[in-house]
Model the fold of this input.
Amino acid sequence: MKTEDYVRSFGMSGMILTDDLRTIEHQYNIELGHVPPAIKQSALEYYPQFEKEVRQQASAMAQYYELFYCLEQSARKLITETMEEAEGADWWEQKVPQAIRDYVKKLIQDETDMGMTQRSERAIDYTTFGQLFDIIGANWAHFELIFTSRPAVQRIVKNLNMLRGPIAHCCPMSEDEIDRLVLTVKDWFRLIG
Done:
C-alpha cells in the first residue's frame, strides 16, 4: 500500500467517525464537541436601531435570565415529580388550588384566542413563579421531607420573586442585587434536603 493510500484511508476514517459522532449527537440530543458549534446570528443583528449601551445591558443581563429560567424549570420539575409520586397523574386537578387552575385555564384560552402556538401541554408551565410556591404551600405535607424549613422556603421565594422583577421587566441589576440573587439561589439549593 502506498503512502497516499494510507493518507486517503486515514482521511476517510476520520470522515466516517465524524459522521457517526453526528448521528450519536442527533440520536441522544447531546453535543460531543468534536466540531465547533455553528455561529448563530443574534436576533439583535436584525435590528441595528437599538443603541449600543442597551445591547450591552441585554448581553450582561442574559446570564441572570438564564439562571432564573433554570431555577424556575427545576422548581416545576420538582413539584411535578413530587406530586405525581404522592398523588398520581391527576394531581393537578385534585391538589392545585382552584384559583391557580382558573388562572392557567384562562391564560391557555387567551393565548389560543390570540392564535399563539401552545407553549406546553403541561398546565404547570402556565403558572407564575409565585404560584409554583403556592402549590408547594398547599401541599406542604408532600414537600416537608424535601425542604429543611417552611419559613426559609417562604423567605427565599419572596426574595427570588423580588429579584425576578428587574430580569423579567428588562432592567439592569445593581451589583448588590446580582450578589443577592446568586446567594439566594445558593440558599434555595441548600434548603433542599
